[in-house]
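Work Package 3 (structural annotation) set out to generate three-dimensional models for the target panel prioritized at the project kickoff. During this period the team completed the workflow that converts sequence records into discrete structure tokens, so that structures can be stored uniformly alongside our sequence database. As a representative example, we reproduce one entry of 365 residues exactly as it appears in the project archive.
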Amino acid sequence: MLSGVKVVEICGIGPGPFCAMHLADLGANVIAVERSVQEPAGPGYVMNRGKRSVVADLKTAEGRNLVLKLIEGADALIEGMRPGVMERLGLGPDVLQARNPRLVYGRMTGWGQDGPLAHAAGHDNNYISLSGALYYTGTEGEVPISPITAIGDIGGGALYLAIGVLAGIMNARETGKGTVVDAAIVDGSAHLLSLLLATKRKGLIVGPRGKNVHDGSHFFSTYRCKDDEYITLGSLEPQFYALLLQKLELDPAAFPQWDRERWPEMREQFAGIFAGRTRADWCALLDGTDVCFGPVLSPEEAATHPHMKARGVYFERDGRLEAMPAPRFDGTAMPAGAVPVRGQHTEQIVNALSRGDAAKVWAAE
């Protein structure tokens, strides 16, 4: 789908590489510029799948010149340094866009390019705690638990950068002018709350953590089973809740759905019920029904679930589990590209650059 889109990635950690991998998954031609360090034994870094890898020391004139030559034929560059680092290397947006005015310069950070915290260190959980995205995770009396990388690095970071870069490329193709995309995890993870904030007007969020439908009710919750595994319920709509009570053989009069005062009591009763059978038992009873039910599975377990197997969501390569590219187009998933070892394409690309052969620079092996 993104055939013909050319991206240079200045490799960092976390959301930047994921963003570039996602673009490669969707067909973009991505050249990853990695640090020249020894590649450990074994397969390459899975976040580099579908990319070609070159090594360069950006603190040297040779390394900087490599990037300058690469971006001349690129649609976009992605970097995940702290604000000001690329400028100090002589590779900031002004320099690169002077060489290629159509270049979209994608910047991935936690705090953003400006603001009081812009230059501070941080990680996924710090960003989503500040943005408000962590607040409603967990239940009353429990500490909020960060869904590691999902809300911040990936949801609020990498995916927003990908959307921003693609929007910038569309604009550049229309206007001939590139742009600088400031993708901050605090911005993206706050924007992810838009649906949650909208539900306040519907009365589903009426108070602090533990007092709302998703974190305080008995019908939208996670429960421990007899075998110490877990299941989830999301029986929000009245018809789904009625079916849940029917499946559990409970009297609807004894379990009024919207009696908020009784939610803690009913939640405790539900906890006792679900603790009486194993996760497999509950799957046999509730899986595939309109109760809105799901077992809590590890990624390895998820890969073997009949639904996930039928869709081919996971696959194994070199002894490790990977997820297939998403989304699908016309019912078909994009193929997962090969994972290069660090620097695998350095010679090929450097030689093509030295000859001024732009077609070979961006030609796949």
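The chain has 16 helices and 13 strands.
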